[in-house]
Write a structure and sequence with these properties.
This protein is about 25% helix and about 25% strand. By secondary structure, it is an alpha/beta fold. The protein has three domains: about 1-215, HUPs (Rossmann fold), CATH 3.40.50.620; about 225-260 and about 470-600, 3-Layer(aba) Sandwich (Rossmann fold); about 270-465, Rossmann fold (3-Layer(aba) Sandwich), CATH 3.40.50. It is globular and about 70 Å long. The mean pLDDT is about 90.
Length: about 600
C-alpha cells in the first residue's frame, strides 16, 4: 500500500495578505513529491503475484493527478472522497486512510515522510497506530528478506543513520535520500481518471462524526505571512573592500550588544495544579537526555504564565547529570515512567506516555521533539487516545479564551499557521532549535522525580546497526557562528576553499536543501523546513538564495550576514547585514576583519 496526497504545486500558490488566505484558484494539483518517492519504493519492492495499491483522501478533482500512479505501474488507486471529509485534520485523515487500508488488506504501507503543503509529518505514525503496527520514519533505504516477511529499514537520524529490522506488517515513511520522485515519462500513455476508484465514508465504514471539522481535535485559527522581522543594511556601493569594511562596522556593533534573556516565570506552589502542568518528554530513542527538551522546559516557564513544566523520563532511571540539567533548565517536577524493557522503541515510549496520561489525566499538554522518533511517539499517542496533535511547532502562547495556541510553518515556510487543540491534553512536536535555550543560572531547587507503576512494553522493531556521519553535526547547536552555503558557493571546490575561513571564525557549516541533495554536504547539516533550526549569535549566508524553506531555520539567529553577487537577491530581505559581490572576492577580504570582530567580543 502507498499513501499519497494530492497537493497544489507549491511554487504557484500565492498568499492574499488582505483576506489572510492562500490563493489556490487555477493552481495545478500534483502528487506530493515525497509520496512519489514512496511509490518508487513500493514498486521496486513488489514481487510477482503482489500488487501495489495507492490510497488517497480528497475531492473528486484529485482523480486526475492520481492517474500518475497508474501511469508508472501501480495496480490500483483508491480515493476516499466524501463531502463530510472537508476540514479534516491529520487525525481525521488518518482514520479515513486506515479504514481504506483495512478494507483491502496490507503487508507493508509506504508513505512520504511529509507533504509539501502542511509539512506535519505525523500522518504515517497516526495511521500505523490505528492499524496496530509499528512505524519507521525518514527511511533512506528499505530492503526485504529474499523470502518471508522480514524487512530492514535504514533511517536518517540527527547524527547519522540507524538500521532496524521488522518481521511483520509495518508502516514506513520515506525521506528524500531514498531516491528521486517517480513521475511518468513524456511518452507515457494517458490514463482514464475513471480508473481511480472512489469510496465514500459509508462504503469504508467510517462514521462521519469522526472526520471533517467536527471530528478533528485541532483547529487552524489563522494563517499569516511569514514576514521577516529584520531591517537589512545592504552594502552595494564602492569597492569590495569598502563594502566589507562597512558591513564589519555594523556587525561589530550588533555582536557587542548583549542578547536579551527573558526571565523564567515561576508559579507559586499553590498554583502548580495538575491542570496547569505541561509534560515535556526529556529522553530520546537512545535513552539519554534530549538537549532540545531543555529548551522546551525553559519556554514553558518563559512564554506560558500560569503553566509549569514537568520532565518525563521513560525506561531506565535518569542520571544525576540529566536531573541537574533539567532542574537548571526550569523543570518544576519530574515523572519517571519505568518500563519492562529498559530501552523501549517508539511504540514502547508511546505506551509509557499513555500510562502517565492515564495517571495524570488533567495535564495541559505534552511536548515532544519534532524529530523522526518524536513524531512516531506523539503520532502514536494521538491516534490511540484520539488527541489533537500539532506538528513541527515553532512557537506557543497562552490565549485567555483558547488556551494554548501553537504556531507552525506551512507551505514551504511562506506562511505561519496558528493552531489550537480541542480537549486535554494538547500534544505538540516542537522543532529542535525553535525555542531559546535556558539562561545560565542555578536550578530553582526542589526538583525531584516521582514514579508510576512499571509499564509493560515489547519491542516490535529491533535496531541492528547504526553509524555516525556528518562530522560535527551533533555540535552545530552549540556553535556561536554558523556559515550556510547555497548553490552559489560553486560546488564542493568552493566549500573546500571555505575550510580555513571556518576555522578562523570557529564556525560550523550548514547548507541549503539543494546543496545537500547535490551531495556536497551531509544531510545532518541541512537547515530549513525539512532540516534543522539553529540560533547562533552570527549566521553567515554565502550564495544562499533566501527561499522561505531555508530561512525558516534562521528565525532565532541573533544576526544574519548575507553575501551574494546580485543586489536583488531575496536573501538580503531576510538578513540584518548584506554585502553585494562575488563570493570569491568578498570572502577572502571578509575573513580577517570578521575574525578580529568576533575575537573582540569574546575578549
Amino acid at each position: 500500500m502507498v499513501l499519497a496526497k494530492v497537493v497544489p504545486r507549491s511554487d504557484a500558490v500565492r498568499f492574499d495578505p488582505e483576506r489572510l488566505r492562500l490563493v489556490r484558484d487555477g493552481v495545478d494539483l500534483v502528487l506530493n513529491p515525497f509520496d512519489q518517492r514512496a511509490l518508487r519504493v513500493a514498486l521496486e519492492l513488489r514481487r510477482p503475484g503482489e500488487s501495489v495499491t495507492v490510497v488517497s483522501v480528497g475531492p473528486p478533482a484529485t482523480r486526475r493527478p492520481l492517474c500518475e500512479a497508474l501511469a508508472v505501474g501501480a495496480d490500483r488507486v483508491l480515493l476516499a472522497s466524501d463531502p463530510a471529509l472537508a476540514g479534516s485534520d491529520t487525525l481525521a485523515t488518518a482514520r479515513t486512510i486506515a479504514a481504506a487500508v483495512r478494507s483491502i488488506g496490507f503487508g507493508l504501507v509506504v508513505a512520504g515522510a511529509r507533504s509539501t503543503d502542511s509539512d506535519t509529518g505525523q500522518v504515517p505514525a497516526e495511521v500505523a497506530a490505528l492499524l496496530g503496527v509499528p512505524v519507521l520514519s525518514e527511511a533512506r533505504a528499505v530492503r526485504r528478506d529474499p523470502e518471508g516477511p522480514g524487512l530492514e529499514v535504514t533511517v536518517d537520524t540527527p547524527t547519522g543513520w540507524a538500521t532496524y529490522r521488522r518481521d511483520g506488517p509495518a508502516v514506513v515513511s520515506v525521506g528524500e535520500k531514498v531516491g528521486k520522485p517517480l513521475r511518468p515519462g513524456p511518452d507515457a500513455p494517458p490514463v482514464d481518471p475513471a480508473r481511480v476508484e472512489i469510496r465514500s465514508l459509508d462504503a469504508l465504514g467510517v462514521d462521519p462524526s469522526d472526520v471533517g471539522a467536527a471530528g478533528s481535535p485541532t483547529v487552524v485559527g489563522s494563517l499569516i505571512p511569514a514576514a521577516s522581522f529584520r531591517s537589512p543594511t545592504v552594502f552595494a556601493e564602492g569597492t569590495v573592500a569598502d563594502r566589507v569594511a562597512g558591513a564589519v562596522r555594523v556587525l561589530s556593533g550588533r555582536l557587542g550588544a548583549p542578547r536579551p534573556t527573558a526571565l523564567l516565570f515561576r508559579p507559586p506552589p499553590s498554583a502548580r495544579l495538575p491542570s496547569a502542568e505541561v509534560l515535556v518528554l526529556a529522553n530520546g530513542d537512545d535513552g539519554e537526555l534530549d538537549p532540545s527538551a531543555l529548551d522546551r522546559i525553559a519556554e514553558v516557564r518563559r512564554a506560558l504564565p500560569g503553566r509549569w513544566p514537568s520532565a518525563v523520563w521513560v525506561g531506565r532511571p535518569p542520571t544525576e547529570a540529566a536531573t541537574f540539567r533539567l532542574g537548571r533548565a526550569g523543570a518544576l517536577g519530574g515523572w519517571h515512567v519505568p518500563t519492562t524493557e529498559p530501552l523501549p522503541d517508539a511504540g514502547g515510549f508511546a505506551r509509557a506516555a499513555e500510562a502517565l496520561l492515564t495517571h495524570r489525566p488533567e495535564v495541559s499538554a505534552l511536548l515532544v521533539s519534532a524529530d523522526p522518533f518524536g513524531r512516531e511517539v506523539a503520532g502514536t499517542v494521538a491516534a490511540r487516545r484520539g488527541l489533537g496533535l500539532v506538528g513541527d511547532a515553532t512557537a506557543v502562547r497562552l490565549d485567555p479564551a483558547l488556551g494554548l495556541v501553537f504556531t507552525k510553518p506551512s507551505f514551504g515556510g511562506r506562511t505561519l499557521a496558528e493552531i489550537t487543540v480541542r480537549g486535554r491534553p494538547a500534544l505538540a512536536t516542537v522543532r529542535p532549535g525553535a525555542f531559546a535555550p535556558p539562561p545560565d543560572g542555578p536550578a530553582d531547587g526542589g526538583f525531584g522525580w516521582s514514579s508510576i507503576a512499571r509499564v509493560p512494553v515489547r519491542t516490535e522493531v529491533r535496531r541492528v546497526a547504526s553509524g555516525a556521519e556528518g562530522g560535527d553535526a551533533a555540535g552545530l547547536a552549540r556553535r556561536e557562528v554558523l556559515v550556510a552555503v547555497g548553490m552559489g558557493v560553486g560546488g564542493p571546490e568552493g566549500i573546500a576553499r571555505l575550510r580555513s575561513v571556518l576555522d578562523r571564525w570557529n564556525a560550523g557549516l550548514v547548507a541549503t536543501r539543494r546543496v545537500v541533495d547535490a551531495g556536497w554536504v551531509p544531510r545532518q547539516h541541512q537547515l530549513g523546513l525539512t532540516g534543522r533550526s539553529f540560533a547562533p549569535r552570527l549566521a553567515v549566508l554565502l550564495g544562499v538564495s533566501g527561499s522561505p524553506n531555508h530561512m525558516v531555520g534562521w528565525r532565532r539567529a541573533g544576526t544574519i550576514l548575507a553575501v551574494d553577487r546580485s543586489a536583488d537577491a531575496a536573501v538580503f530581505r531576510e538578513a540584518d547585514v548584506g554585502i553585494v559581490g562575488p563570493l570569491e572576492e568578498v570572502v577572502p577580504q571578509l575573513a580577517e576583519p570578521l575574525a578580529r570582530a568576533l575575537a573582540a567580543q569574546e575578549g
